[in-house]
Amino acid sequence: MKLLFTFFNPSGGMETLNRIRCHAFMKMDVECHLLYSLDGEGRKNIKDIPTFVMNDEASIGKLIQRQNYDAIVVCTDVTMLLTIKKAGFKGHLIFEIQGLGTLQTASAVLKDISARVLQAADGVLYPQTSHLQELMTAYLHGIPHFCFDDPLDTECFGYSSYPPKPFPIIGWVGRIEANKNWREFLLIGSRMLQKHPEGYLWIFGDTTLGDPAEKEHYDRWVNGLQLQHKLIVYSNIPHEQIADYFSVIGDSGGFLCSTSILEGFGYAVAEAMLCRCPVLTTDSDGIRRFLIHDVTGKLYARGNVNQAVVQGESLMKDTTLRNTIRKNAEKHIKQHFSSEKYTTNFMNMLKSLSQRKPKY
Hints:
By secondary structure, the protein is of the alpha/beta class.
């Protein structure tokens, strides 16, 4: 069997998802390829997976005809979906949604693309996230739906012990964009540093992506809150090293703070949990699949900075609760989000689709 997974560019959660599921399938002797419309820094993370970067119809058409894939998963990019269909692909074509930003944005996007997806796709795939389930049901009814959790690399990605830092670290992962809600993180971080002046803020992301105007606003906020000497930005850290950084944050007495408005899954939060790095996060839809308040992490109401600071202090000062959360979180991710569970669900999806003739 041969599968192709496509997305706009190798970055963020989608780069992680594609890499993890390809390696999982390869262990089952399923050949997997990746296709991105644009190149990106995340491509450095990809090893031993045939990866193509192209966006013109002729090249994509030749690839489809040459490789003879059994099934293709197209994430978000409806133009790519139609290009592959136009190329004469004869296998099953699956349209995937992992997250589309805020609820308003997601609704507008799905309303715009629904007719074209229904025309070309044989099925739709998305994670078990309530707002996505509702939107997909509303806009893409009439074709098979498949809804199951994304995988993590629970075998190779995890906690490592390092000499603990002599200061607490509060981490944040994401692009400088509205849905990631970076302003709220800076406000929370500033308040936490007032209580722990020896601490530091670590931000992880891809500085090659994002809106220059948004970055200008970000710089003004950093200067206005006087965080210049307390904030360290890490850009495009190799993915296998992120586990080390999460482990260090966890052992420092700090935590990962996630301030997103809405998440389809939330890879950064789940991976931090896997690395025994406690998490304080907004009560964001996709996060609820794996984060239970005071059991596997801490939740706060988005916009309530005071509540976030109280919960952050609890994570840092209540040693018994902190240790319990770290232990529970790692165990929870390993039990419920393994790549083996994902491949089983995915193969069941293909088996179900095999009983239906692909659209031509």
